[in-house]
Design goal:
By secondary structure, the chain is mostly helical. The protein has one domain. Helices cover about 75% and strands about 5% of the residues. It has a three-stranded parallel β-sheet with strand order 2-1-3. The protein starts with a helix and ends in a 5-residue tail after the last helix.
């Protein structure tokens, strides 16, 4: 999940970087302001993401309990046909439950991703930065603006 979010953020930054490099190549040599953010730190401070993780863990635990009940129900069946019918029924329910859990979690991840992207972009523009990198993709230079963005993360 975090890998997907980080990949999405990295792609967004790479896209922005492409435009930034193009603008830099066409500029009159003016000094660009460059910043960087610690994305994992921002993600760890997201209450929405923490809540989504907690919800997913609880739903997974509930699904394991449900699975035990379904297995016991299947074992109670005396005929092979009865077992097969219940297996199909429970497999369909399991697929539905897993999809619902994944969809809800993906929605929250997308919400956090959009929020971070907007917060980083708005704050960087307000502070006069033209380029913002992830902290682990910048070797030298730039200003760390993570602490300026932390209060904006929900």
């Amino acid at each position: 999940m975090k890998k997907n979010l980080l990949t999405l953020l990295l792609c967004s930054f790479a896209f922005g970087l492409g435009f930034g490099i193009n603008n830099f190549a066409l500029s009159d040599g003016a000094q660009m302001k460059v910043a960087y953010v610690n994305v994992p730190k921002l993600l760890n401070s997201s209450k929405i993401l923490k809540s989504a993780d907690e919800t997913r863990v609880k739903q997974t635990q509930d699904m394991l309990k449900w699975y035990d009940t379904a297995s016991a129900d299947i074992q109670k069946q005396k005929t092979q046909q009865g077992r097969e019918t219940l297996i199909k029924k429970y497999e369909a329910q399991l697929t539905t439950k897993k999809k619902a859990i994944n969809d809800a979690y993906s929605k929250k991840v997308h919400e956090v991703d959009s929020q971070l992207e907007k917060a980083i972009s708005d704050k960087a523009k307000a502070m006069g930065y033209e380029l913002v990198f992830k902290s682990d993709s910048l070797i030298v230079g730039g200003d760390d603006i993570t602490s300026s963005i932390l209060p904006l993360v929900k």
